[in-house]
Amino acid sequence: MLDLPVVRPGVPDLRSARRFLIWIARRQLGVVTSGALFGVAWMTSQAAIPLVLGAALGATVRRDRSQILLWSLVLLGLGITQAVAGILRHRRAVANFLNAVSRVEQLVARHACHLGGDLARRVAAGEVASLGSSDMERIGEALDVTARAAGALASFLAVSIVLLVLSPALGAVVVLGVPLAMALVVPLVRPLERRQTAERETRAEASSLASDTVTGLRVLRGLGGENVFASRFERASEVVAGASIRTATVQSYLDGAQVLLPGVLVVAVTWLGARYAIHRSISPGELVAFYASAAFLLIPMQTFVEAFSKWTAALVASRRIIGVLSMQRALLDVGTAAGASVVATPDFLRETLTDELTNTVIAPGLLTAVVPATPEEGSALLDRLGRFDDPPDGKAVVIGSRTLDQIPLRMLRRQVVMLERSPVELATTPAEVVAPAGDRTAEVIEAAAAGELIDGLPDGLATPLPERWRSLSGGQRQRLALAQALAGDPDVLLLDDPTSAVDAHTESAIADRLRRIRAGRTTVITTTSPLLLDRADRVVLLDGEAVACGTHTEMLQGEERYRAIVLRGAEADMKPAALSHSGPPPATQADRRRDGEGGS
């Protein structure tokens, strides 16, 4: 077995599913070849046993003791060979399976890291889960069966040759009967492939629905939507069950053919052999050899059908894996984009950041709050400012005199950090989350208002958190994620509605502390919260483009659209002056919703 994981998984051949499987086999050619050799030794020794038994029976009829002893020793040797070769063949088969699965896992994981956020946008979580839970195993099983398939082919050829020598007529029945039986089985392979493909797609859709439902279970319970999604998943499960039944129907025909067709062949050989023995065309020992050999051929034929089935399933799985491995990043890095040229990295602390698509200008060193007409519009702006997405052709995001696509992504990711509206959190501990802060850890935790949260955990900073931090409430996850974003102290920090799930008191504390800890650095927040807007140095109203900008007080006094978005009509009769620079404003309807969902 190769050392796993392999150091260099290689560059796969993605031109077709068949070429991909061949490429994997070639990468572990030594294991595949040795497995095939042991498979040949294992099954040919097994195939020789009926012939040796027939010879021993003939010697017994003749009462030739020396021949009886000779064939008995040969039979013992075949048994030992079969046992040893079978063990080694099985070990190689398992090695084939593990090596293939591990290599594909590495390929998918490496490409997923390369795609980054593009993967989540273009491939559903359930689809990725299906790749890991079933598709990779199908490829491993296809490599696993090669050892037995090689042995089945070698033993079939060996038995056919011997039978043709002993009796050309009976040998011809065997030699022609097996290919004929296989020819009757092959037409079932194509329908099986189609139905496996359809079943695979329905399973992926159901897995995606289940994943999305589990992720949003807390919200669904709050909205009373559990029954709706339960019904949707029930319908999706019924579709999967129907597809599975259709696949199993074809598979049952295939499995039945494995028994019926070889059985017909054995009956034919036995009947003809018995007639030849009656007419003394063959000896009783040869009749036993023919019958036992014909019965043995059940094993190679079943192996052939099993191999066809597993190779078909592997082709279906390979197409899905190739679909992911063939994906290209939506963003081209410096040196790959046409006409792109590398320039010196700009000073993010001193240069203005401009989104040409919306004419939004982000002044350096200030806390800028963006009030979007829709949440999606705000998220899209931050995606462009952090270059997680590119604007349409003809537009760009400019930093000083440069465009972001002229800056290497690796360098850009160190300078600009974005906290998404719904970040993907990995299993970790709070200590690992804030580790980049170093000596600033206490300050970062305080700025995110996460001190009380951490103190309440069983082991404090060392408390293990599960994937997606499901053990925390929505507000707790937001505060810890904010601490993680602040820990790296980036030159530019982009926050997408970072306090939507915390209560008004906590939000007010975060607003004050965020302004202090980010003093002198560029921070952009998308929000409609008056608490955050009141602490911002500059506020931008975004509705297709940057409609207006100013302080929170100026915008409340001069922009009716801004007032309508921020206050949502809850304080239509209140004076603007009462809502600015006078401490936390009265709770709006949105604030009251946060207090209810809380999770502080």
Describe how the helices and strands are arranged:
Elements: H1 17-27, H2 29-62, H3 65-115, H4 117-122, H5 125-144, H6 146-166, H7 168-185, H8 189-215, H9 217-223, H10 226-278, H11 284-296, H12 298-325, E1 353-355, E2 360-362, E3 367-372, H13 375-385, E4 397-399, E5 402-403, H14 409-415, E6 416-419, H15 430-433, H16 441-447, H17 451-455, H18 474-487, E7 492-496, H19 504-517, E8 522-526, H20 530-535, E9 538-542, E10 546-550, H21 552-558, H22 560-567, H23 589-597
Parallel strand pairs: 3-8, 3-9, 6-7, 7-8
Antiparallel strand pairs: 1-2, 1-4, 4-5, 9-10
Helix pairs in contact: 1-12, 2-3, 2-6, 2-11, 3-5, 5-8, 5-12, 6-7, 6-12, 7-10, 8-10, 8-12, 10-11, 10-12, 16-18, 16-19
Question: Could you provide a short overview of the structure?
Answer:
64% of the residues lie in helices and 7% in strands.
Task: Walk me through the structure.
This protein has helices spanning 17-27, 29-62, 65-115, 117-122, 125-144, 146-166, 168-185, 189-215, 217-223, 226-278, 284-296, 298-325, 375-385, 409-415, 430-433, 441-447, 451-455, 474-487, 504-517, 530-535, 552-558, 560-567, 589-597; strands spanning 353-355, 360-362, 367-372, 397-399, 402-403, 416-419, 492-496, 522-526, 538-542, 546-550. Strand 7 (492-496), helix 19 (504-517) and strand 8 (522-526) form a beta-alpha-beta unit. The protein is elongated and about 115 Å long. Helices cover 64% and strands 7% of the residues. The protein is α/β, with parallel strands linked by helices. The protein folds into two domains: 17-325, ABC transporter type 1, transmembrane domain (ABC transporter transmembrane region fold, Up-down Bundle); 353-594, P-loop containing nucleotide triphosphate hydrolases (Rossmann fold, 3-Layer(aba) Sandwich). A six-stranded mixed β-sheet has the order 6-7-8-3-9-10, with helices on both faces. Strands 2-1-4-5 form a four-stranded antiparallel β-sheet, with helices on one face.
